[in-house]
Structure formats: structure tokens, C-alpha cells
Amino acid sequence: MVFVSCEKQKPMDKVVNDALSFSLKQYKHMADVMKDKEDLLPRTLDTVGNLVTAKSSWWTSGFFPGCLWYLYEYSKDGKIKEYAEMMTARIEKEKNNTGTHDLGFMLYCSFGNGLRVTGNKNYIEVLLTGAKSLSTRFRPKIGCIQSWNSRKGWQCPVIIDNMMNLEFLMWAFKSSGDSSYYKICVSHSDTTMKNHFRPDYSSYHVVSYDTITGRVEKKQTSQGASDESAWARGQSWGLYGYTVMFRETKLVKYLNQAIHIADFMIDNPNMPQDKIPYWDFNAPGIPNAKRDVSAAAVMASALIELSGYVQPELGKKYLEIAETQLRSLASPVYLAKAGKNGNFILMHSVGSIPGKSEVDVPLTYADYYFIEALLRYKSLSKK
Questions:
Q1: Which of 78, 223, 226, 326 places its Cα 20 to 30 Å from the Cα of 159?
Q2: Of 161, 274, 292, 367, which residue is the catalytic one?
């Protein structure tokens, strides 16, 4: 995969505005396709390019409506708002789902953005009910929210992705005044910081705990190249999660953790020139290994926010990396052609290579964090 250096010549504000305009058109087409698919949300494409949809209970269900809310915020297009409301409503029943740790992705990306953008107070009940459901997965003996349910070899698995669902509970704390949400988030963050990270600040994907003693029983990497490898999207989840936790708590330990993770990724010798990571920093076959656009989109969004919390020189470095990532993502190498790619925005994401699932395809969460990063960058230029 070749980096398109000529893209660097385009002014950054034009890169951002062109990408947002394109995203709006693609997702309006996607919403037209989805409007008659009752209770379904877009997920990805299959190996021959057919649209793969998911029910509301699938962990990615909130990203499509979340994208629509972001695009409505950008465009003030009434039709996009109508679609955003329609797709968001398809997920409401998940507010009672206590069988998943992903309610932040599912509800906060959809209803949370809808509330933030429109002030629709009907969304508050959905979110508070969902936060209560998510909190039932907190295991006091361990100090973490349980991710997947128990299975062979794992009594209480906790995945690094779970850091992404804490923003939802911090919202619930601020909205309800219930301090138990704050305590859960801090406990989960502290326990994850202690057990998920290696001395170089790379992280394991899965840490499983003994439910009786609360001690670590296994450290593994389910979606990465090996247990000791640095699965790229997992590193991005951690970076984003600790950046959010610093924003919400102002606890410097979380800022320091985010900085360490960012530096591990940025300074990694296997980070490509265009700053779109391989699917794993230790993937076999580098430099011919698959890239993971979703890891880059999450990382870019996190770095833009993190750049505002650190010393100016470091902030400039982080912002420059995010700019390079956005330029790369908005280039023909990764950005779809109009009306193609199943109306998804970005190409070349990786779900799980070990699981032979969603390899080198578009993914809704890559699009979501790309749009978010574009809007975050755009808001910086207004300051």
C-alpha cells in the first residue's frame, strides 16, 4: 500500500471539509438503503461486496446512527436528522440488555449523540436505563466490568475495548449524581492500567480474572497476532479510553497513561509512514501485512483530543500525527469512491484476522471515528 504524498499539498481545512461532504453523501445513500430494513443496522460488506447487516444486539449497532448524528451536526440537513432518529430508535430495546459490556458503543454513540446534538429529553431515560444495565456487569471482587461471559479458559474476561464504554457511565454519573458510576469507572481504569499493560505500555487484549480470588488468571490477545503482540486497534482503544478518563476525572495518572500509550504507538518502528497501522504492530509479514483503518481512525480522534491536554510541544506532535492520519484516510488509498464500497466511507479495516472475520473490509466504527476525528479537527480550527 503506497502513501499518496501529493495529498499533503491540499490545505488541511479542505481535506477535512471535502471528507465530511463526501461522508454526508455516502451515508445519505446508506440510510436510503437501510430505511426499509426494519430493525437492522449496517455492519460491513461480505467477501463479494454484499451488505452485511446486524440486529440491535450486535456490538456495532450504535455506530451508524452515531455517524448520522455527527453528519447532522455538521450539515444541519433535516433528512439526515430524520434518518438519525429512525436508526437510533432501532436500538432502544438494548437499554435493558445486561448481557453485554458494549452498551456505551451501542447507546452512547447513538442516543448520547442524539441528546447532545438535539437536546431530546426522551433520550435521557434510555441512556440512564442503559447505564444501569451496564453497571450490573461490574465485579467488585475484581474491580472491573466483565466483558464477555464466562467461557472455557476464562472465568471473567475483561478486554481493553471496555475502556471505551466508560464515557457512557461518566455521563450517567454527571446526569444522575449517582457516584457509583464514577467509582466503577475509576476502579475499572485503575485495574486495567495495572494488569493490561506491559512495561512498554503496549496492552494485552484480554485479561481474565479468577472470580473467587479476583486475581489474574490469564493474559491473552484474542484478536491479535499472538498473546504477546500489540494488536493495533486494542492500543487505540486504550489510548482513547484513558484520554476520556482524564477529561472526565482530571486525574493526572490517566493523562500520563494516555501519553505513554500514544508514544508507544507513534514511536513504534513498525508504524508505517502514512500512520495507518498494520492490524498488529507485531504482525507477521510486515511490510506486506494488512492495515487496519479502524485503528487509525480511533487513534486520530484520540490524539486530537489528547493534544489539548499536554504541553504545547507534545500537543503539536500529536496533532501532526493526527493530521497525517486524516490526510491518509482521506486519500484515494483508503477513502471509497462515491457510491461504491457499499456506501461505507473507508476501505481496508480489519475485524479479526485470527477469527477470519471482517478482513480488509469497511466497518461502521472506522467510519464513526473518522467522522468524529474530522469534526474534532474542524472545531480546533475555529478556536
A1: 326
A2: 161
pLDDT above 60: residue 3: no
Q: Domain map of the chain by residue range?
A: 5-98+108-131+231-380, 137-220
* Residues 285-306 pLDDT 10s: 999 999 999 999 999 999 999 9
Would you say domain 5-98+108-131+231-380 falls under CATH 3.10.300.10?
A: no
Task: Establish whether 46 is a catalytic residue.
Answer: no
Q: Are 157 and 146 in contact (CB under 8 A)?
A: yes
What angle (nearest 5°) sits at the alpha carbon of residue 140, between those of residues 137 and 142? 95
267 is catalytic: no
pLDDT in tens, 332-353: 999 999 999 999 999 999 999 9
Residues 164, 167: Cα–Cα separation, whole Å: 7
- pLDDT value at position 73? 98
Chain-centre distance of CA 259, in angstroms? 18
3-state secondary structure the chain: CCCCHHHHHCCHHHHHHHHHHHHHHHHHHHHHHHCCCCCEEEEEECCCCCEEEEECCCCCCCHHHHHHHHHHHHHCCHHHHHHHHHHHHCCHHHHHCCCCCCHHHHHHHHHHHHHHHHCCCHHHHHHHHHHHHHHCCEECCCCEECCCCCECCECEEEEHHHHHHHHHHHHHHHHHCCHHHHHHHHHHHHHHHHHCECCCCCECCEEEECCCCCCEEEEECCCCCCCCCCEHHHHHHHHHHHHHHHHHHCCHHHHHHHHHHHHHHHCCCCCCCCCCCECECCCCCCCCCCECHHHHHHHHHHHHHHCCCCCHHHHHHHHHHHHHHHHHHCCCCCECCCCCHHHCCECCEEEECCCCEEEEECEHHHHHHHHHHHHHHHHHHHC
> Burial level of 148, CB count in 10 A (0-12/13-18/19+)?
middle
Catalytic annotation, pick one of 13, 39, 102, 292? 102
User: Which pTM value belongs to this model?
Assistant: 0.97
Q: Which residue has the cell 442503559?
A: 130
Chain position carrying cell 482524564: 246
Distance CA 293, CA 358 (A): 12
